[in-house]
Design goal:
Elements: E1 3-10, H1 16-26, H2 32-44, H3 60-65, E2 72-77, E3 82-87, H4 95-102, E4 107-113, H5 120-131, E5 136-142, H6 151-165, E6 173-177, H7 201-207, E7 220-222, E8 225-227, E9 239-243, E10 249-250, E11 254-258, E12 262-271, E13 274-276, E14 278-279, E15 284-289, E16 300-302, E17 309-320, E18 326-327, E19 331-336, E20 339-352, E21 359-360, E22 365-366, E23 371-384, E24 395-399, E25 406-415
Parallel strand pairs: 1-3, 1-4, 4-5, 5-6
Antiparallel strand pairs: 2-3, 7-16, 8-9, 9-15, 10-14, 11-12, 11-16, 12-13, 12-15, 17-23, 17-25, 18-22, 19-20, 19-24, 20-21, 20-23, 24-25
Length: 429
């Protein structure tokens, strides 16, 4: 049984927490004591029915305000698949939380209130989802019960969203009309919308194919830790631990260790459950090499004829997460895989208007929750891939050198000397 990670996003009060509560409730993914607790809270507040949003809105401030503030993770399983849900905030103030919660997702559910239609936050979250490389998007048109389950309302929202989504680099987008409050088309098909012939949301989540989403061609293994037990039994053991980012590693494969360039072969692939003949993402393993060569934390093991770009200059899309704006000349720590180096902002190439997707080349800074293309220079070369090739070796975070707060999340667009950047009339270009 495989695992699907998905996130929910949308504008405030579109029903994200209620949808997740309904998924958990109707799929028998909650314990009886949890149900009893939210039933008591719902009665105390005078609600006529159980408020399923209380299953995910765990912070007191969230319950008091009726909004999601932090990312809430929930886990459930069906006979077909296991799921990890990231319930992300809808308010623009918490866009950075949405970026964090969606960064590892395979699929994003963007909720749209059927009464309000496609709002700026709906577009913002869909754009961020594609920017983060999420390959599958579901647009769930919620609260269909409040518009009389009208097919024309759903069709109008789908048409508007599809026209706007043509500017995005998204290849799999599905539209589902639902009512999270009443459970229509969430787990079971709705009898109130006979005009909809597609799957329920849960059926789609169970059956969406994610096997081809992983890059199994470009082998990348960032070294996170050196294992030297120093015991009598394992006195000569030397392993290199980490999580496989992309590609497949097999026992006996010829590999190269970067940045040193030393070549060797894989002698063993170890896990907590024993040795493997081959390993692929997202497995965490330890590799033993045939030759005793110098390998350190932050190095990368890959194939001799398929290597990342070694560069100290890069262009990246950056989601800014700090009150203090990003400006040209600013200095930060840049953490990429298991390496940290100093970095300086050489240029802010443009800032993106997430509503129109137009680029502002006159912008001089990126403010909180804004997104733009930035040119960076690092104090030491990094082993980089473009983000569309690998979300692990193409992604990084920026850290404030004084407070050590994470202030930005970056996705590599180009590694190497500066190149001319054309006007991004289409984000997919």
């Amino acid at each position: 049984m495989d695992l699907l990670r998905f996130s929910t996003a949308g504008s405030v009060d579109d029903g994200k927490s209620t949808l997740i509560g309904r998924l958990l409730f109707d799929s028998k993914g909650i314990f009886e004591d949890q149900l009893q607790a939210i039933e008591r809270t719902s009665r105390r507040r005078g609600y006529s029915q159980v408020d399923l949003a209380l299953l995910t809105d765990g912070l007191r401030a969230e319950r008091e305000q009726g909004i999601t503030i932090d990312v809430a993770y929930r886990y459930f399983a069906t006979p077909r698949r296991k799921f990890i849900i990231a319930d992300t905030p809808g308010h623009v103030q918490y866009t950075r939380n949405m970026v964090t919660g969606s960064s590892t997702a395979d699929l994003a559910i963007v909720l749209v209130d059927a009464r309000k239609g496609v709002l700026e936050q709906s577009r913002r979250h869909a754009f961020i989802a594609t920017l983060l490389g999420i390959p599958h998007i579901v647009v769930a048109v919620n609260k269909m019960d409040l518009v009389g389950y009208d097919e024309s309302v759903f069709d109008a929202i789908r048409t508007e969203f599809e026209e706007w989504a043509q500017k995005l680099d998204v290849h799999d987008i599905t539209f589902i009309p639902i009512s999270a409050l009443h459970g229509d088309n969430v787990v079971q098909r709705s009898l109130s919308m006979p005009w909809y012939q597609g799957p329920s949301l849960l059926y789609h989540l169970e059956n969406v194919y994610i096997g081809s989403d992983r890059n199994l061609i470009d082998a990348r293994f960032p070294v996170q830790w050196i294992i030297r037990p120093q015991t009598d039994e394992h006195h000569d053991y030397r392993g290199y631990a980490g999580q496989i980012a992309t590609g497949v590693f097999r026992k006996g494969d010829e590999v190269v260790v970067l940045p040193s360039g030393h070549r060797t072969r894989i002698a063993r692939i170890g896990t907590m459950d024993g040795e493997l003949e081959a390993a692929m993402p997202p497995l965490s393993v330890s590799l033993q090499l045939e030759d005793d060569i110098d390998v350190s934390r932050g190095d990368m093991i890959c194939r001799p004829h398929n290597q990342p770009t070694v560069a100290s200059e890069l262009d990246a899309m950056v989601c800014w997460m700090n009150e203090a704006p990003l400006r040209k000349g600013a200095r930060y720590l840049l953490k990429h895989t298991s390496r940290s180096v100093k970095a300086m902002v050489d240029d802010l190439i443009y800032r993106i208007d997430v509503n129109s997707l137009h680029s502002d080349r006159a912008a001089t800074e990126l403010g909180l929750n804004e997104i733009g293309r930035v040119r960076l220079r690092t104090s030491a070369p990094l082993l980089l891939d473009e983000y569309k090739l690998s979300r692990t070796t193409g992604g990084f975070i920026l850290i404030d050198e004084t407070t050590y707060d994470t202030v930005g999340a970056g996705m590599v667009e180009h590694a190497g000397p500066p190149q001319e950047v054309p006007e991004p009339d289409r984000l997919a270009a």
